[in-house]
Every structure is written in C-alpha cells, then in structure tokens.
Amino acid sequence: MTVFEDLGTFHGVPGRLADGGARCQGGPDTAMAGYTLLELMAILIIVGILAAVLAPRFLGTSGFTGQTTTDKLLAAARYAETLAQNQGVTTALTVGANSFSVTQNGVAVANPARPSTSFIVPLPAGVTITPQTTVNFARPGVPSTTPTFTITGTGFKASLYVTTTGYIYECGPQGACPP
C-alpha cells in the first residue's frame, strides 16, 4: 500500500479519518444538538412570569412624574434666585395648588427653555406641593422666607429646602432637611 492509498484509512478501516470522526456529517452515528419541547416551554413560562412581575416597575410613571416635578421646581427656584442676583429686581417663586411660577413685579417671566412662553408650570395629576407660598428673592439672591417644599405623588415623596443664603437643594441626596 502506498502513502497516498493510506490517507483515507484509520487502522485499516476505510472511510475513517485519523481523529476517529466520520467523513460525512449527519451520518447515522452523528448526535444532533438542540432543545426539547419541554425545555422550551419551561423557558417561556419563566420569561412570562418575569415579564408580568417586572414590567409594571419599569413602565409605571408615578415615580417619574414626582421626580420630574421636583426637578422643575428646583430649577424654577434657582432661576428665580439667579434673576434676582443678575437683574437686581425682586423675583418671586410662587407655588399654588395647581402650578408654580416665576414672576417679577407680578408678571410671569419668560421661560428660558421656551422664551415665547411664560414660566408657569402646571402640576401633573396626582402630584402636590406644600406649602403653597411665595418666596421673594431680593437683589443678592436672599429669600424672604426659607420654606421646605414637600412634593408628593403616588409612591413618591421629596423635599426641597431654601436656605437663608438663597441656595436651594433637594433634601436627602445633598444634605438633611432642617428640623
């Protein structure tokens, strides 16, 4: 037997390679890989249960509307303070039952995000802010009162504190609210 004739044999058995594998894939001695119907059904049931439990946590907006309102009130208070410092005009942050606004001499100022509109922000349904009061910021940005605003919504509660120097922050993440 020549060297070329011996290439296709393994221990003298024609059709086998030296590694013991079959020459052709898919033959009767080749095992097929895959999942059983039972395994696929178990995976679908587990994914369905996880979707039913976790989807409401990610799709609900109750916490988002409360935090968004908190962020908007914080921005409005800081904007009122900045206007009082830069323009030398007393600027008021007024919190009402249905909205809050930034005004100068009783007139709502232009919204910096949309200059063609007034800085009046309506409260979303289910969100409340207490106390309903007006904070006037004088020339150096000093407030007339130092309230702690509490923003509440469905499953949400946050507090904003106005310091005597005019700095406004969210209690908790950046510091404790005063007693």
UniProtKB/TrEMBL annotation:
The keyword Cytoplasm does not apply. The keyword NAD does not apply. Keywords: Membrane, Transmembrane, Transmembrane helix. The chain crosses the membrane at residues 35-55. Signal peptide: none annotated. This is Type II secretion system protein H. It comes from Acidiferrobacter thiooxydans. The lineage of its organism: Bacteria, Pseudomonadati, Pseudomonadota, Gammaproteobacteria, Acidiferrobacterales.
